[in-house]
Amino acid sequence: MPFAAGAALGETPRHRGFRVLMRDHPMSPTPQSVVFALAAIVVAMHLAPAGAQPLSVTPGEDLRVLYATPLDIAEGERVAEASCKGCHGLAGISTAKEVPHIAGQRAAYLYAEVRTYKQGGRGDNPMAGAVKLLSDDSLMKAAAYYASLEPAQPAAGAAKNAPMKPDPVQAGRAAAAACAGCHGEDGVSKTPGTPSLAGLDPKYVVAAMLAYRSGQRKNDLMKALVGTLSDTDMSNIALHYALQKPARAQTPAPGDAAAGKAAAAACSGCHGEHGVSGSPSNPNLAGQDAQYIAVAVRAYKDGARSNDLMKGPAASLDERAARDIAAYYASQQPQAPNVRKPVTPAELAQQCDRCHGVGGNSTDPRAPSLAAQRADYLEKALQAYRKGTRKSTAMAAMSEMLGDSDIEGIAAHYSRQKARFAVYVLVPAR
Ligand code: HEC
Ligand code: HEC
Ligand code: HEC
Ligand code: HEC
After folding, report:
1. For 93-120, what is the mean pLDDT?
2. Which CATH superfamily is 2-160+346-427 part of?
3. From CA 237, how far away is CA 216, in angstroms rounded?
4. Which band of pLDDT confidence, cut at 50, 70 and 90, is reported for residue 23?
5. Could you identify which of 81, 96, 384, 414 might form a hypothetical disulfide with 390, taking C-beta atoms 3.0 to 4.6 angstroms apart as the criterion?
6. How far apart are alpha carbons 368 and 147 in whole angstroms?
7. Which of 11-25, 78-92, 325-339 has the weakest average pLDDT?
8. Considering the chain, what percentage of its residues have pLDDT values greater than 90?
């Protein structure tokens, strides 16, 4: 039982600093063993100072729980038995959806949160009712009790609860291998009549694949090639091409680009001044294979490819004008669409670990550990911060930048981390 360590050594709250030591297991809760274990820790800290980090904390009401005695903890167990066990279990390891594990959670955090629930600060939920009638003293003891327990570890079934999503960039690259023979290794075409895919907006590329699949865009070859892909495959492939460096297609452009430039004025309203449109529904034409452009214009004109917006502009072009416009666009410099490489949960977690500790094992008694927490609860908490229904200045800023899939990924990431126990050892004032 670590938090009585100071008391066991006759320390008092006037000491201003703690040392924190991360352990794989809590110490046994008898006063003698605390002293022995503490001696061992002090030795261990001298031998391996890298494992221990000094914390500068100001004692106050919120840190009262760090001075809980073995007696307080024994009383806390009785409070837990009577008021918490039904939902959190006596071991603090939850088996219910969206009910958090609280065993081994940092003590000052637990105590602060139960008081927040009591004051209605975390909204109307089962917890608010459970703690409403308990005194701060009982809550402090219950917090000290749960903090002293062995934390939950990543569940054997965690992989099933929170399947690891493959990295979309890698998955896209792998799936696009089947397309490289025609569309070019990096999506820059070397085959006249086959479009480059690099430099196209991923939303447009997905829409095109869906149109082939549904038959709305008629092309037997492309239907066969993309018709069996899942929606996820499609978006991964589109992302892969969007991240490639676009270049002009390495194919001949037989028309008169100068004549084409003048005629292209009629197209620039939708396709952009130099063939870079800026809108995902209007495909970029800059650097596109010239033969493909000319064939597409003919297809819109004769109705083989039907699109209300393109029918008019295409109808006004004869073969020669179409070829000239194609040569003009093919000569323009394509640009990469505005798509950033998605951040992986592990990369994202580096920003969270700053406060939540390495692998989500917090060293600050006031900041929650996230390691091995239930993924469903972590998701719910992050959604609540993002919506503003759970208030925290730090977390409002951090959750704002997260999309739904980031939240899913990061929750799965932390639910899989090994949970470690933090021992707070008072550092005597010098
Ligand atoms: C009726 C079921 C129920 C009972 C009884 C209950 N809890 Fe909870 N507890 C919950 C639920 C559900 C949540 C998550 C609520 C939310 O999403 O904010 C929660 C959340 C918590 C949290 C926040 C954990 C975190 O990681 O932020 C703490 C701390 C906590 N409970 C402690 C206790 C203590 C101590 C008791 C007994 C005094 C207790 N609970 C009794 C259902 C219960
Ligand atoms: C055998 C050669 C070949 C292969 C392999 C191939 N494509 Fe195509 N692709 C074409 C041709 C030819 C067109 C032009 C069809 C048309 O006129 O509609 C095309 C058109 C497309 C378009 C429409 C582009 C636009 O600008 O509208 C997309 C998107 C596309 N292919 C994606 C893929 C993907 C993804 C794969 C791999 C899973 C793939 N293709 C494999 C030949 C191929
Ligand atoms: C009113 C807006 C608009 C104008 C003007 C317009 N386009 Fe389009 N264009 C579109 C849209 C929208 C599409 C995508 C249609 C689809 O999904 O098949 C498209 C598609 C195309 C394509 C197929 C590109 C690909 O990757 O498959 C070509 C080629 C094209 N336009 C050429 C032209 C030319 C040349 C002109 C001028 C003569 C022109 N467009 C004028 C809206 C426009
Ligand atoms: C600047 C410090 C800081 C950073 C960075 C930070 N957090 Fe937090 N986080 C906190 C604090 C403080 C709390 C407790 C807030 C409260 O009382 O609700 C918290 C609470 C949480 C909770 C609720 C835990 C529980 O048991 O209820 C989750 C989940 C969480 N953070 C996830 C994250 C994720 C994911 C990131 C990175 C994207 C992150 N945090 C980055 C400080 C931080």
Report:
1. 95
2. Cytochrome c-like domain (1.10.760.10)
3. 20
4. confident
5. 384
6. 11
7. 11-25
8. 74
pTM listed for this prediction: 0.72
- Ligand 4 atom 31: residue of nearest CA: 395
One fold for 2-160+346-427 and 168-331: yes
User: Is the CB of 122 inside a 6 Å radius of any atom of ligand 2?
Assistant: no
For residues 395 and 387, is the Cβ–Cβ distance under 8 A? Answer: no
**Mean residue pLDDT across the chain:** 87
Contacts 24+ apart (CB under 8 A), 347-355: 348/402, 348/406, 348/409, 348/410, 348/413, 349/410, 349/413, 349/414, 351/398, 352/398, 352/410, 352/414, 355/394
**How buried is residue 343: exposed, middle or buried, by Cβ count under 10 Å (0-12/13-18/19+)?**
middle
Domain regions of the chain by residue span = 2-160+346-427, 168-331
pLDDT in tens, 162-172: 556 678 889 99
Does ligand 3 have an atom closer than 6 angstroms to the CB of 290? Answer: no
The reported pLDDT for the residue numbered 95 is 93
- Residue from 88, 93, 119 whose mutation best tests the ligand 1 pocket (most atoms within 8 A of CB): 88
Q: Give nearest CA residue, ligand 1 atom 7.
A: 127
* Long-range contacts at 353-361 (CB < 8 A, ≥ 24 apart): 355/394, 359/417, 359/418, 359/420, 360/414, 360/417, 361/22, 361/417, 361/419, 361/420, 361/422
**Ligand 3 pocket residue status of 327, Cβ below 6 Å:** no
> Nearest residue CA, atom 26 of ligand 2?
195
Q: Check pocket membership of 153 for ligand 2, CB cut-off 6 A.
A: no
pLDDT of 284:
98
- The residue whose CA has the least distance to atom 29 of ligand 4 is 378
- Average pLDDT score over residue span 364-376: 94
Residue 231 has pLDDT above 90, yes or no: yes
Ligand 1 close to Cβ of residue 128 (< 6 A) = no
Residue-level pLDDT at 277: 96
